[in-house]
Description:
Helices cover 83% and strands 0% of the residues.
Amino acid sequence: MNSIWTIAKRELASYFDSLTAYIIIILFLGLTGFFTWVWPSNVFFRGQADLNIFFEVIYICLLFFIPAITMRTIAEEKGSGTLELLSTKAISDWQIVIGKYLSSLLLIAIAFACTIPYYITISKLGNADHGAIIGAYVGLLLYTSAFVSLGIFASSITSNQIVGFLLALTFLLVFAFIFGFLGSSIPGTIGETLYFMSARTHYDSISRGLIDSRDILYFGGLTFLGLLFSQAMLAKRNWKD
């Protein structure tokens, strides 16, 4: 556990040392704040005390921010050769993957924490549905957890960060939109299965304030599979040896 936390802290510190964290948080707050409070169908225009627009915007923003954060996690280590150095320090592949995963998740959680004033403001403006808003935040964390693991997996496939970004973006688009589109277009069991595989299906369910075990299992299972595949990609270098 100490090794995992050490890797996570090192990674998180590197984000802030390189200004990456500050740029991502500022862009994140700028985009979500603009569409929530300024343009086009902002909170004041709609006249409702909710953050529905914010959660719609953030759902899309994360499709780009998560690949931008995770693209360097393992690809950079592989490209620079420091991955082998980590392995010589009695650190397992699982510890490396979990440490990288936690650092990325913590960075996005910090960005989420910076949006709490949005919630406070909405609460002051009217009778907000606190259950729905809190549920949406929970849904965001679960959604982010699953997609960060997919981003880590994409980064583990290559030593090129740009390729890692594009692979992660592709994975995320498939789960965020394509499965849902195919599921609603194809009839029968196949369509239902594809629809169930859509992250949007489960995110929308939790965002309504309904905590369903199927949604938690979906995001938890997707997170685990992403991390498992990442660990398997790291283990491949040992097979070659």
